[in-house]
Amino acid sequence: MNVIVAVDRNWAIGRDGDQLVYISEDLKHFKALTLNHTVILGRKTLTTFPGGRPLKGRRNLILSRNPSFAPEGAEVFSDLETLLAAAPEDAFVIGGASVYAALLDFCDTAYVTKIGGRFPEADCFFPDLDARPEWQIAEEGPELEESGLKFRYVTYKRA
Ligand SMILES: NC(=O)c1ccc[n+]([C@@H]2O[C@H](COP(=O)([O-])OP(=O)(O)OC[C@H]3O[C@@H](n4cnc5c(N)ncnc54)[C@H](OP(=O)(O)O)[C@@H]3O)[C@@H](O)[C@H]2O)c1
C-alpha cells in the first residue's frame, strides 16, 4: 500500500485535531494521487474534511471502534485485520497519526510533502523515515513556495 502525508521539519503532522497548515497546491497534489483509489483514514481525520464527509471519487475505508459510527459514503472497520483484508494493494493510507503508526509497516511507498518550517505547537507526528534505514528516498522534487511557505514533494520507497 501507499502512504501520503505532509510533515514539517520535525515530522509533525497536526495540532488540536487539525492540519498544521493548508497548502492549496499540496491539496491538488493529494487529490491527483488519490483520486479513483481507496483511501484509509481514522475517524478523527474524517472530521477535518469539509462537512466531515468522506472524500469524493475515492473509496473511503474508515477506522473506528464506535459501532454506531456509520457515515454515508464510507465503509467503517473496527479492527485492522478486517480493514487490511478489504484494502486493495493500491490503497493510500491518509492519516491521522494513529492510523499512520498502525499501517506504515504495510506500506512500501510514502509520498511525503516536506514543509520547510517547524511548528512548535504541533501535537502529533509521523515516524521519521530518514531515521529508518528500510526507507530510502526514491525521488525528490524541486523546492516550491506558496504564501511564503516552502515545501517539496519527496517519495520514499521501502528498500
Ligand atoms: N499532515 C497530514 O498529512 C495529516 C493527514 C491526516 C491527519 N493529520 C492530522 O492527524 C491528527 C489526527 O490523528 P489522530 O491520531 O488523532 O486521529 P486519527 O488517526 O485520524 O483517528 C483516530 C481514531 O481512529 C480510530 N482508530 C484508530 N486506530 C484504530 C484501530 N486499530 N481500530 C479501530 N479504530 C481505530 C479510532 O476511532 P474511534 O475513536 O471512533 O474509535 C480513533 O480514535 C489531526 O491533527 C489531523 O489534522 C495530518
Topology (SSEs and partners):
Elements: E1 2-7, E2 12-15, E3 18-19, H1 24-34, E4 38-42, H2 43-46, E5 59-63, E6 75-77, H3 80-86, E7 92-93, H4 97-103, E8 109-115, E9 124-125, E10 135-140, E11 144-146, E12 149-158
Parallel strand pairs: 1-7, 1-8, 4-5, 4-7, 5-6
Antiparallel strand pairs: 2-3, 2-9, 8-12, 10-12, 11-12
Bound molecules: NADP nicotinamide-adenine-dinucleotide phosphate (NAP).
Residues 5-6, 13-14, 17-19, 42-45, 48, 63-66, 69, 78-80, 94-99, 102, 124 line the site of NADP nicotinamide-adenine-dinucleotide phosphate.
Key terms for this structure?
three-stranded antiparallel beta sheet, globular, 159 residues, nine-stranded mixed beta sheet, binds NADP nicotinamide-adenine-dinucleotide phosphate, single chain, alpha/beta, Dihydrofolate Reductase, subunit A, 35% strand
Give a nutshell description of this structure.
With 159 residues, this protein is an alpha/beta fold. It has helices at residues 24-34, 43-46, 80-86, 97-103; strands at residues 2-7, 12-15, 18-19, 38-42, 59-63, 75-77, 92-93, 109-115, 124-125, 135-140, 144-146, 149-158.
3D architecture notes:
There is one protein chain. The chain is α/β, with parallel strands linked by helices and 159 residues long. The protein has a single domain (2-158), classed as Dihydrofolate Reductase, subunit A (3-Layer(aba) Sandwich), CATH 3.40.430. The chain has helices at 24-34, 43-46, 80-86, 97-103, and strands spanning 2-7, 12-15, 18-19, 38-42, 59-63, 75-77, 92-93, 109-115, 124-125, 135-140, 144-146, 149-158. The strands form 2 sheets. Strands 1, 4, 5, 6, 7, 8, 10, 11 and 12 form a 9-stranded mixed sheet that branches. Strands 3-2-9 form a 3-stranded antiparallel sheet, with no helix packed on it. A hairpin with a 2-residue loop joins strand 2 (12-15) and strand 3 (18-19). The chain binds NADP nicotinamide-adenine-dinucleotide phosphate. NADP nicotinamide-adenine-dinucleotide phosphate is lined by residues 5-6, 13-14, 17-19, 42-45, 48, 63-66, 69, 78-80, 94-99, 102, 124.
